[in-house]
Amino acid sequence: MTAEAAALNGEIRQLLAEITGDQAPLRAPPDTPLLRDGLGLDSLGGTMLLTEIKRRYGVDVADEDLNLDSLASIGALAAYVSARTGAVGRPR
Amino acid sequence: MIKCVVWDLDNTLLDGVYLESAERPPAVNAALVTVLRDLAGRGILHAIASRNPPDAGQYAERATDHAFAAIQCGWGSKPTAIEAIAAELGMTAHELAFVDDDALERAEVSFRLPQVLVLAPQDFPAAADWPQFSPPAVTDEARRRGELYLQRRSRQEEARAHGGSRDDFLRFCHTTVTIAAAVTEDLPRLHELSVRTHQFNSTGKAVGEAQFASLLGSAEHRVATVRLADRFGDDGLVGACVIAVGARRWQVSLLMMSCRALGRGVIDALLAWICRAASDAGAAEVAVTCMLSPRNVPLRIALAGAGFRADETALAEGPRRTASYRRALGDVLPAVPDWVTVPG
Fold first, then answer.
1. Whole-model pTM?
2. In chain B, positions 111-130, which contact chain A (CB-CB < 8 Å)?
3. Chain B, nearest residue to A33 by Cα
4. Is A37 within 8 Å of chain B by CB?
5. Per-residue pLDDT for A46 more than 90?
6. Do B301 and A43 touch (CB under 8 A)?
7. Which of B292, B302, B309 has its CB closest to that of A43?
8. What pLDDT score was predicted for residue A90?
9. How many other CB atoms sit within 10 Å of the CB of residue B147?
10. A36 shares contact with chain B (CB less than 8 Å)
């Protein structure tokens, strides 16, 4: 993981902690699901998350990811945003 | 359609500056309060965004004799206060109007939140006659809307104090969700929901009472209503769905829920019941036709959470992009929580 991707990963975990009001996202394994039984994010929390990601990184997950596969896990979301912001060296 | 008016206090809702006369705070602007009451009667909410200490909000509630749905008093910017109000009420910016006497504040809100309808106090009484402030259907549920949002304020304050999981909190609130077959008396509210719901609406189209009535009489369709209550209050009819019942597939042609039920387990309960009922009837699949709009992201998150997958190949391009979200019923079905009552 590049330094940028690691920083992004940390930021997303921090954001999830703020939305869920719980410290668990800071140390949960990367494959922890965001919805339901994972971090327990509901549609309200999910919408707040996607709104904030769009505001911070300019990535409109809801528009681009029809199935919201990027919400499958903490790692999937970090990788999705990372790939679209060029944090891993790929063009947007 | 405007769902909430956000008011500035100093020299807007109040005839003066609160902190300049803390001993005897300024009186309210009677003309604006008359309009405020008229709009409240149409089911439109009111909120306060003011650069003042919190007691200014309490004073305004007493002086206007109106309980506001959300109050943001502090020293931050007006756009930030408006965003916080939108988040608290589960609304989007284009459902809000903002009234402020200060041209600079109005300009900042217009610049940062272009979807908000921004008005000067002197323009507001005339603007209240615009179609944006005239919901086509006003039901009892709509008239009680202000009261319902107050209950929401108490609920959120308790939720912050409670901690624990969401399910624990819903139980703690004595949440009850009742799913039932729609009846004729539900028609006005069904129509109203189809007009007013956006974040949880699969089609984004208004449906007339006559259309719902014909669906009630159709043997191939089921129209189900969802009611919600807890110890803070009774929200009444907050959601509904229309299902074309086939032998192999249940096709959900409309799914809608009021945003005041957001975060209270209602949409998950409804999706779980649809899957269970379809499976019990011998169907192999449930499909939800869903418009793809930035406004109904909450609904799409709920669908993803309930195991529905969109068929990208069937994506209809055009002015209204839609996708079919499907879920096979062979595997484990979603659980219906014990506080949900389903049709027998």
1. 0.68
2. none
3. B305
4. no
5. no
6. yes
7. B302
8. 42
9. 12
10. yes
With residue A22 as reference, give the H or E element that holds it.
none
**Tokens (6 digits) for B150:** 């107050």
Domain ranges for chain A: 3-85
> Structurally, what CATH architecture does the domain formed by A3-85 represent?
Orthogonal Bundle (1.10)
Q: Which of B163, B302, B323 sits opposite A66 (nearest CB)?
A: B323
Please state which of the four CATH numbers 3.40.630.30, 3.40.1170.20, 3.30.1280.10, 1.20.1740.10 is assigned to the domain occupying B163-341.
3.40.630.30
Average pLDDT, chain A: 83
Portion 195-214 of B in contact with A at CB < 8 A: 199-200
Distances (CA, A) of A76 to A27, B99, B193: 16, 42, 35
Q: How much of chain A is helix, strand and coil, in % rounded to 5?
A: 60, 0, 35
Min Cα separation A15/chain B (Å):
16
Backbone angles phi, psi at B115, to 5 degrees: -80, -15
- The pLDDT score that the predictor gives to residue A88 is 44
H or E segment to which residue B312 belongs: none
Nearest alpha-carbon partner for B59 in B19, B32, B89, B119: B19
Give the pLDDT means over successive 10-residue stretches in chain B (344 positions): 94 92 86 93 92 90 91 89 88 93 91 92 89 77 70 71 72 91 96 88 92 95 95 90 96 91 86 95 94 84 89 60 89 86 85
Tell me which amino acid residue A59 is: V
CATH number of B4-133: 3.40.50.1000
For chain B, give every domain's residue range: 4-133, 163-341
Provide the token pair at A57: 């990184």
* Minimum-distance CB partner of A48 among B87, B160, B166: B87
Query: Is residue B150 within 8 Å of residue B67, measured between CB atoms?
Result: yes
